[in-house]
Amino acid sequence: MLSFLPLLLLNALIPLGSANADYHERLLLRPLPQSAVLASFNFRSNETSTAFEEQNFRYFPRSLGQILQHARTKELHLRFSLGRWDAESWGERPWNGAREGGTGVELWAWIEGQSEEEAFSRWLTLTNALSGLFCASLNFIDATKTIRPVMSFQPEGNHANSSNLHLLHGTLPHEVVCTENLTPFVKLLPCKGKAGISSLLDGHKLFDASWQTMSIDVRPVCAAGGKDCILEMEQTVDMVLDIERSKRPRDNPIPRPLPIEEIACDESKPYNAADSCYPLEDSDGHQAAWNLTEIFGKPLKGACPLTAEEGENAHTVCVNSPPERTIQVNTTGPYLEANLAGDTVRCYKLPTGADFDLVFPSQQMTTGLVLATPPLFAARSINGHGQERGSVQAVIRNPSTSQAVEFVYLESLPWFMKPYLHTLRAHVSSSTENPIKETYYRPAVDRKRGTHLELRMLIPASSTLTLTYDFEKAILRYTEYPPDANRGFDVAPAIIRLITPPSSDGKGTYLRTTSLLLPLPTPDFSMPYNVIILTSTVMALGFGNIFNLLVRRFVGADEVQGTGGLKGMLVAKVARIRGMFGGS
Amino acid sequence: MALISTLLALRKDPRILKLPPYLSALCILVGVAWLLVLPLNEYSRNTYVSENALLPGQVHTYFTGSEHNVFRAYRHEVASLVDMPLEERNQKLVHILRSNKLKAATQSYSYAASGRNISNQNVYAVLQGPRADATEAIVLVASWLTIDGEVNHSGVALLLTLSRYFKRWSLWSKDIIFLISGDSTSGPQAWVDAYHDSHSPDTIESLSIKSGALQGAVAIEYPAGPWGHRFEKLHIIYDGINGQLPNLDLFNTAVSIASGQMGAGCTLQRMWKHDDNYKERLQTMLRGMISQGLGHATGPHSAFIPYHVDAITLQTVGDGWHDEMTLGRTVESLFRSLNNLLEHLHQSFFFYLLLQANRFVSIGTYLPSAMLIAVSFSITSIALWVLSGRPTSIPSPATTAPLKDSKGPTEKETNKTAVTVVEKDKDKSLLPLAALEVTERSLFLPVAFITLSHFLGLFPLYIFNNTTEAFLAPAFYSTAILTATLPFAAAFTLRRFARPTPQESTLIQCFSLLFLGMFLSALATVNFSLSFLVGIFASPLTFVRGLHAASSPSTPVPFTTKNRLALSAVMSVVLAALNPVVVIRAATLYWGRDIVQVLVQAAEGWHVWGLWTQVVVWLVWWPAWFAGSVVVAGGLFS
């Protein structure tokens, strides 16, 4: 009966809520070097807080809204990621890294609760509910994978109206993100992939991307003084497509060698002949030809009717490329083109109800792509070998020649990877000063919780910081190993949040390292089974003998009455025959 | 109870000490015979792929067509790089790899061994797998120079072509690392050390690009020049450093793909022609054992194995009709198989002896052979320990037979055994007094001697690893002369102090054999071949004895005491021939190798690869030989 009520209310409240409730979407395309293209999808649905409290959902998805209300979650951040951002060639991260997560699934939320225990039980409710909603193993985020970060995350929303908020954070680095996570993600959108830019989202292309991340962020946004609050849900999908790979049709995805006639050979080579071909390299400014339908595998089906009709927000497809790049529009409906933010961003207002395509022909450019340098580069690896110990090395580089960078480094390690904190060394290439300014450390408890380490560090301009620590590998109980025990165990990526320079949009600047694979001492699993079989055999033999001795009475043949001689034999035979006929 | 008391009575029987040498001999005989029956069908098995995920040869390979044209062009490029200076050559290779859209870098390294400076540069590139998350990687290696020192023209060109070809695929779930190492053994070692950050950063450059945990490595060697050369077979090299082996699944996958999918035969251990008969199987196995026993780096793959990265080298041999595309498609199929792996290779055997490309013996079958040989030392050692606790001559109360020469009762009368009456629980018994004597073992000299002889082994170990190449030959021959004469000098010197007493020399041999037996049985589980080879060469040490002049001249003189000098001389000659230094020299002569080159390689192994064979030779085998020789030589001077 409860589900009926909001539906009726919704109709009544539309005029009230619509003042603030709205929906925006935007696709930003940015060409990257080495014939890659970054596609950033951004969907934003707003709902007023009052409407949300009354379960009056218009743009905000009901399924998610009810989960948030039930788990008393005031701010939610959920990430699904795959692959790695290649900062060396692609430059700065989209959204300054604030809308991406580590490999696998990452979730953090501010939850209301009178005590830590209450907040944690609501956290479990939240993870279990989200697990069902997104078809992900989020329910595996238990106490051992949950931490309470101290310095690494700041709430993005205004929480003046709520008190007793607890920040909880959990990661699943081994979770493989795939189509079954995309489908519920697209379902949360008002246009559900039928129209608007979300009609481009296709599992085959998304998960063939060199890097992709899907995120959901829910936060309350209030006007000054904590009045007129709205609940904002932002969904983003960022992906880097390799143009050459994405252009391959789905029915012929095998990259067979091209016929030799289609390969451009370097004819200046002395050995160039019919049978030898040195492939001609793409010259620097060469841009490959591509269009939206080709690289996303399906056409863009016109505008989502819920987006604004006029103004900046109506222009939902934007291309960030040098002005000289030729872009042809291919559509049957009416569309508008406008330049936003100078002439490097060209935006298009989509026609409603007609397919829309952008065609980028092959072109020789005179201006190169300008990529912003990321504020930090980070790489992390496990060193050493053997079954007992190892060490982790994180190398963080500040490319800036003038500006020192202060950041927080967060490690969330599983309990079976036990760091020795006394071996923690941070070393900066340019100075002898200790870069660690502040340390927060919460040691692991076996099978209860993992290690939580946060370091506030300062890295001077144009220098490299090397952070190392040793760890010991625990031996697990044999039932604690996963089915693919010999693969190793994934260690969540380290999260780096920049404190200075502060980010301009208040969402923070983040970067994450790749996850690590930790090989643990693994028993030969056939051995326990051999032992079980052997013990069972021995037990069966021993038990059988003793059981025999206990329940049987051994009597000498001559002690049995009436069995002697021919008469006895006859009596026994008769008894047997009578027994066979069931006689008593 | 009766059985136990019989056994206890037997314990003191002198006849029981006659048994161990026969038992030891039996152990050695059975051990050797055991090894010889292994090539028979009944004791070996056909190989099989254990890991289901590998699915060898189940994918279609597409490395053909225009890739062949590209390959030929790259081969010309490689040929044009041969005469270039190192830096320039590697920059060109980096350029080609970068134009294939990979992240490429170089790594310089330099090692010093035997006064030589091994310095060179590796080129490597990482293909970031589209489906990978930087946690796992597989490596394709083509060293610039092959194991035989030729330029790996086609191998390097094939690596470049494959890097271009692999980049186009979407299906890689692991990163692929392409490594062109400067030479065939030290280069991969420097690279893999730096990858695991266990290098010395002063001489070996750290890697600027890294990926995840290495899951497997395949090296290719195809030295055919710019005009190509068709090959007949693939020679698969699999021995790692210190006799460690890659998982048998990797080897099986390679064999199954090369012979099953590509139709190119596979061969191993330089058995170019293999008719699969007993003799050739045995020969393959023995070659494998010698290679494993030496523990040296046999190819670019060897350096990976100590890091638990399974690796093999594919080498092209012979004249046939297979060209570079066969090798390329083999590598493609092999990488597709490795790409399928969900877990580190662990299903199949890590300890095996291969008889042929698809026949092997597993550790459970062959291990008893080396163990029996190791046990033979332990048996003798226990016997010698018991012997050392005995009074020099116990008249046996059990002996009723008349003594030799049957001089009759007169002799018996004169040598009446002193007896005493022992009373226990109202039972009385007559016991010879000698049996009740407590014989104290003087342990100081034997222990000190054994310690000293092991300590002496450190000298050759140090000298051979740290002498420059020019002085290695003189060092070797002077060591040979010194070690040949040292036992006699030591025995002579000790004899001047009237040491060792017969008991002490027994104890010296006891400890030495105990240590040898224990060490070899432990070693057999790790490096079977080395343990077996050392065991065979040290086996005479079980049978030699220090012969001493009879203490009581009145007793009948046994044969051994009578011919003491002659026997000691014979035993000394036998042992001199089995001096580790002599054995090494004989082996190099037999295989036609230059002793200096062998020593240079051993020193390189010590400093670069982390080779442990010389530790076994100088700190286990040589001290055991020395102790045995001194004990025997004692017989000459007593």
UniProtKB/TrEMBL annotation, chain A:
Q: Which residues form the signal peptide?
A: 1-19
UniProt keyword Transmembrane present: yes
Annotated keywords = Membrane, Signal, Transmembrane, Transmembrane helix
What is the protein's given name? GPI transamidase-like protein component Gpi16
Q: A GO biological process this protein is involved in?
A: attachment of GPI anchor to protein
Q: Name one GO cellular component term.
A: GPI-anchor transamidase complex
Residue stretches spanning the membrane = 529-551
Automatic annotation (TrEMBL), chain B:
Q: Which InterPro entries match?
A: Gaa1 (IPR007246)
BP GO annotations? attachment of GPI anchor to protein
What residue ranges are annotated as transmembrane? 21-40, 366-387, 443-463, 475-494, 506-524, 569-591, 611-637
A cellular component term (GO) from this record?
Answer: GPI-anchor transamidase complex
Q: Which Gene3D superfamilies match?
A: Zn peptidases
- Key words of the record: Membrane, Transmembrane, Transmembrane helix
Q: Name one Pfam family in it.
A: Gaa1
Quote the protein name from its UniProt record: Glycosylphosphatidylinositol:protein transamidase, GAA1 component
Species the sequence originates in = Amniculicola lignicola CBS 123094
